Amino acid sequence: MPQNIDIIDGPATASYRPRLSRETRQLLLTALLAVLTLWILARVRFPDRPPAANPVPPILEQLTGTTTFADLAARVAELRAQLADSLVPFAFTPVEARPGAAAQRAVALRIRDDVAVTVGVPANRRAGGAPSGVVAEDRASGLVLVSTPVNTRPRVPIFWSPRDLQQPRYVLAASTSLSDITLQPAFIGSLAPVETSQWTEPVWALPLDVAIAPGALLFTEQGELVGVVAQCDTGLAVVPARVLLASAERLLESPPKAPADIGVDVDELTPALATVLGAQSGVVISWVDPNGIAASALRVGDVIEAIDDVTIASVAQWRVRAARAAVGDAFTLRVTRRGAQRTVKLVLPSASGVNGAALGLGMRPVVRVGTEVTRVARGSAAEAAGIAAGDLITLIGTVSAPTPSQIASAFDGVNRGDLLMVAVTRDGVHRVMALQR
Asked: What is the spatial distance between Cα 125 and Cα 142, in angstroms, rounded to a whole number?
């Protein structure tokens, strides 16, 4: 082994670390400052510029396509088939309708095997009896319960629960034709909760420009029941589904009563009338049926402040209470007459009393022609004969061109159960009726 190799012991060599030169570090710092300066200038120059759009969603939309009218029509047809067992068409002709008048049609929602609910025009029928098929009705709100054939058990739709009533939305309105039920899309800009005299809970007021008829049942695209469109004292409104069903259940549970007429019309109490009549609030009586139960206790100019201790603040509130009056009901009125308060008690007579000797006509003479009918009292003999407001009575019995007093005398001059012939002119058509005492 060669001996010319020297072995030198010493410390271990340290690991190698490359070192940046001073010039390199200055260059990197300058670049960083430049980028930061450009970012600050961009934010100052374009503070509101939106971020760049993501190109992926538009591409996906092109691949998936857009909704067409055919898709909407298919969804409507699917929903109509889904609701087929729950909706039934209903048609009725109001008692006071003129000859040849078309029947009013509506869509009713089945709530039991044999009963469906719908809403018509409030107080659209007089006290002469409900149309065939009506189980019960509330004349103040227009709520009507109708009998339906028992075929399949109805499936009441799920109730819609709104999160934001102000949000614009599309709904599907159910309407009826001669032989079928249709669903039509309708746009509603917003809904607003309001209190009304006809319903015990708030309803949703519709915008003035909405094109939906009263009585239409509204559904969401998913088949949820929104409610029914009704005519209220505040205008058109949607009665929520829960309110509609709760009102229908109360109407079913209440004992049936024959409707009756209080025989009083009222008007708003203006500040000027309040000063003249010495009253502070209420409604002023504008007409009293001379043959009615209130003829001896009330007169034109009296101010009704409350009924059964419930304050009457508007004409709409009075009409709702009067529309729900039934035979046998008793009322306690707080009345102001020329500044003096008094209490008036009224009891509506039984059905036999209503159908007795009351002629029930408001009349005014037409010289050398006869008498014009201005009002027909509900449940009166005139209503039973088919006489309507606006008719021109040209003959009663043997008296031609009769005056109001001659008509009243002729009616009072026959025995109970006897008949009088009455000739009237209605819209240019001449008709003859039988008036029974």
From this structure: 10
